[in-house]
Each structure stands twice: as structure tokens, then as C-alpha cells.
Amino acid sequence: MFIVAAGGGVQLPVVVATVVVSGVVIVPEVVVVVTVVLGATAACIFPVMLRSVGGDGQSLTAYNASVPLVGLRIAFSWWILGFPLAILYFVTLFRIHRGRAIAASGREGY
To answer: Is the Cα dihedral 98, 99, 101, 104 positive or negative?
Structure first.
């Protein structure tokens, strides 16, 4: 577990390096850091995710917190419907609000 947790510390100085492509700042190292931190957290709490004060039988583990396959299929079907709608919403939102912002004149605004 220490090796996985130490991997997050190795990646932290790399976050400072950025790549600018067509005026857009891209920081792919952040994805690596978040993945390593989440992986280290998952490795540290596996298999007991939430301990119960009422006894070990009532603790939330990776095995008793799982969802049946039917529930996963229903969630996936909702994801197939909802993800394109979310992408369409963001594309529409950014197209409506594209361009430079113009400051209010006179006494309008703050």
C-alpha cells in the first residue's frame, strides 16, 4: 500500500509542467495524480470501506456493497441516454456564450 501511496508524491512535481496547444492549457498529469490518489485510497480501505460500531457483521465491505447485475444494466442504459444529452447541453451552452465578455458601461454592474 505504501508503494501506491508514494506514487502520488512522485507525480506532484510534474503537475507544474503544462502544455499549451492552440491557446488551451492542458495538464494531463492531474489525471495521473487523481488516479494514483484514488487508487491509494481504495487500496488502503479494501475490503472494509466503512466500519460499523455495531459489529463487524454490519460493516460496509466491497463484497456486501455491490449491486446486482440487473441494477448495473439499468444504470448503463440511463448512462447511454444521459451522457449524450449532457454533452449536447455543454456544446449548446458554450456556443451560446462564446466570444469575449463585454464589461457593462456606466452604472450597470458593480
So the answer is: negative
